[in-house]
Amino acid sequence: MASESLHRSEETIFALASGVGRAGVAVIRLSGQASSNVCQELTGAPPPPARKAQLVTISSPLDGEIIDRGLVLWFPAPASFTGEDVLEFHLHGGPAVLAMMFEAMQRRCDVRPADPGEFSRRSFMNGKMDLTAAEGLADLVAAETRQQARQARRQLDGALGRHYGDWHARLLEALALLEAEIDFAPEEEVPDDLLATVLPKLDLLLAEIERHLADNRRGERLRNGLRVALIGPPNAGKSSLLNHLAARDIAIVTDIPGTTRDVLETPLDLAGYPVVLVDMAGLRTSEDPVERLGIERAHSEAADADLRLLLFDGAHWPEVDPTTAAFMNDESIVALNKSDLLLRNDDHRIEGRETHLISCHTGDGIENLVTTLGERAARAMAPGDLPVLTRLRHRQALADVVGALKRVQDAEALPELALIAEDVRMAMQSMGRITGKVNVESVLDQIFSSFCIGK
Length: 455
Ligand SMILES: Nc1nc2c(ncn2[C@@H]2O[C@H](COP(=O)(O)OP(=O)(O)OP(=O)(O)O)[C@@H](O)[C@H]2O)c(=O)[nH]1
Ligand SMILES: [Mg+2]
Prior knowledge:
With 455 residues, the protein is of the alpha/beta class. Helix content is 44%, strand content 17%.
């Protein structure tokens, strides 16, 4: 039971830092003021020298029963992940050992289990990392492909935070100049020279942010996976292709048209790029109410997908399903399945497009199709030189910044200092929301630190 007198943020928190389940080694992490007392109580000794592992015997403070022998590590504040005193136990990862440890720690009224993300939150609150880095850390833990891990690591290292920090600083500088003018020359008209220096800089910044936003959502796609919809008539072999690529029997395959009704997904890792392949009902008009629901979902999935893989049924060649063909866009990948039923030397191009001739039965042509898919994935998600935004949260905050800077631009014809300053302040606050640095006091600091007293 946690103490009533302590604020939650002052309580010492603990959590299993390693994965759940039986494991050779489990890591329990504590953060907060009581960490060193917990060490004393459980090991009979104060924490070992900082950052040096020490083998200890851990016994229960309740009855003295030995819980385990393991390593203890001590990271005194502020040089720790959270910025607080941090203690780590490396123990044998059995459920009974862990249960006894948790029971022993929770006996203290100032120690409690951590909330999700609470260690990172404390790290952020103590200025150890900004919000984008904290998000990068969460992404790194969740990353399933090499490229996802890369992007997350870059963000954790602060690349995105620095980028936004630089923009924040430029807004702050503009605001400081505008505020200073308001404070020191309230009666005067807007000085031309001030606007002549500030406004072009803001225009430049606006252009940079707009370029950053027009990134085709590559960072968000890499984080979530590129959604590729398998679109085709019933019986084309969509589910067969999904199973083939996933190397598992995920979807039911039968020769009855209209077999699939639900939307089924499987993740694929194509040279480090994450793709989510989506199988769904074949497109046709149906009287069956259940199938119709499936077809409705298929239509909306097809419309929302990042990429469309159109699969036509070779059994009906040269007939080409018009409903499927209607989904074709410049980006679509076109494939004709059941090549085992087709004559080799015919021209099988559909609507003049490069058409992958494949067979889910023999595996023919599938390697080529996967190569194309991988190239498309890389093209849609490959990182450039500059860090990319990875979350809708960033995009929304930046849209607010753009909105405010556009109002500044519109005001150029009829400049009113206070209004311009207000919009710049709003832009800066939206920017600060991304990294978690919303602090108006810093404007005042900047003004007075860059001005001499007599001015
Ligand atoms: N000859 C041949 N038959 C195939 C091939 N691929 C799939 N089939 C057969 O085609 C039939 C339909 O396959 P599915 O994978 O269920 O087709 P679907 O597009 O998912 O169909 P719905 O779920 O009804 O929309 C099954 O009998 C498959 O065995 C292929 O490459 N060659
Ligand atoms: Mg199917």
